[in-house]
Amino acid sequence: MSTNLNSHRHCVDKINLLQSIQKDGFSILEKAIDANQIATCKSLLQSAIQHSNAKGYGMRRLLEEIPMLRQLCCEVPIRNLVEPILGKNAFPVRGIFFDKNPQANWGVSWHQDMTIAVKQRVNISGFWPWSIKDGIHHVQPPIPILERMLTLRIHLDDTLADNAPLQVIPGSHLHGYVKLENIQKLKENAVTCPVYSGGVLVMKPLLVHASQPAKQASHRRVIHIEFAAEELPGGLEWYGS
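^ thats the sequence. predicted structure below, dont judge the formating
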């Protein structure tokens, strides 16, 4: 049964943030991004969607389409969330935009984020399988690379009980790849993560998570940015670097 985990809501305390990420794999930071920046992000996304081939409910080439978001990744509010976990050398490697709305109200089953985006395919040991999404090469890397990454989900709208907040299984990021049958056993420990506009859900890619369709569909816009702090081996290059 899902419950709220209010202990994971706090102002940016770098020690508590690091401890939460290490132990549970996620933390929620309310009011991490100010209202003016949120309004600017909404405006830029609206314009980018209108002037690109992106569907209204999502965009994969986010850092490429909206350079301002790459700049945001260099500013203090974001660095305060990333550097305690990955260090000062951390950089964004992929940006994705999601918008659940009345015309696109989908659910996502329990899963881990197992793939990375790269500039071109290079066949090296440990990187498999390969796929192409929106013209971008994606591959599943060795687990240690995913363990050293971090994801920020910046909420542009209130994502509360009726608007499909993310569900997560605390501590599941510590088990490497989690098989489906084991996810079913862990689901009883799931918690929901409601986040207000301007809040950020910080999480490890290997954290098992899911999302239901919204009960009362309205805009549920989320900017998903992944960070790493090291280059890839064998000539592979991060797509968003």
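DSSP finds seven helices and 14 strands in the chain.
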